[in-house]
Design brief:
Length: 449
Amino acid sequence: MKYNYFDEKREKTPWNELEKNIIKRGQWTLKRLWDNIPFLKKRYQEANVSPDSLKTIDDFQKIPFMSKQDFLDSFPDKLVCVPKEDLVRMHATSGTSGHRPTCGFYNQNDLDNWTYLCARNLGAIGMTKKDVFQNTTSAGLFTGGFGYAQGCTLLGAMLIPFGPGMTSRQLEFFKIFKVTSFHAIPSFGLRLAEVMEEEGIKKEDLFLERAILGAEGWAESTRKTIEERLGIKAYDNYGLTEAYGPGVSCECQEQNGLHLWTDYFYPEIIDPKTGEVLSEGETGELVLTSLYKEAMPIFRYRTGDITALRKSECPCGRTGYMIDRIKGRKDDMHVIKGVNVYPSMIEEEIFNLSSYFTDTYLIIYHTVGVMDQVTVNVEVKTGINAEKAKRELEKKLLEATFLRIDVHTFPPGALPRQPGKAIRYIDIRDRPEGYKGWLKMMQEGQGSQ
Ligand code: ZN
């Protein structure tokens, strides 16, 4: 394969140079926080560390973490390290109900670096200045809209800043303006495929080649559906407002994990329970240190996102670290018989057997005697042998998790459905009536909670 790059030389920076940069820029970031953020300086002093403590990569482990709570406590702008008049932009997450949004502030250098990294992402998925790029996310508070608008402009491709919704009209634009690439959240990718079918638009009628998708979890099977139905390659990317936004990591044309731009961010993986740093390839919580952020740097920031890390051996030649697709939030993780279980692992196996099961499922964590147990409730499609489907899924779940997980089958429409965000799992390990009690309650129609 011939690989495309936005900045080939820097994306292939030799390891020893990357490592030197991580230490040098890490010191710079730590000093910035030490000098400007009193509560962090106090935290570092209490841990007996200072910016001088950072001499090798291993020294990162001595430095206390930053957390989401620090952002909430510092709301709105107490983590800003530059004079207020130097700020040129602010973005924010929506904040879940009753919670404060997480704010990101940028000075001009931050904005330039962020733009550059988003251009790198678009280059990595194969875009050049010849492409036409439709951004289907809003250029508003969320980082995805502006981030990719800026990145696309720096790359030199033509930007259509369409914004969200109006699916039919988006498809019309795809056709009229010969759009080759688009940015969306994965569920909108699926929506586009649905509306194409409804309106009789064939993938051959369009000029699409690729999409960059992210900002919500998506299963590998969702990727396959979008790719087949739109006739494109769909690439994953991951970023967060605390780290500019998108532009932290992105898949390349190999689609074998996400390249994390290691000249801008130093990643670690920790055990979310103990905070202990895990080895390469082990799954845990992603921790990020920014190396160039000026207005709002982060040092060993616990993202809450679960993935695994490894050094790149990608055929594209990009150096630095790679991460797996995000497996979920640490809040979704359950430890069952010493094994970390994420709903996404189970969902993946259910969706892979989509010829057997509907999209509605419910995972129940419960106790049998003193043992923690997982039971997966699925709906078997009409005409499918439920016993065979059950055995097949149990086998796949055992292979994926190394746990014996019971599968309980229901007819289509039998499981409770929630308006809005779907509930994927319920933890009733503290309830003495256990799974049987839940089942009885559910079947009596008293709701799933
Ligand atoms: Zn690659």
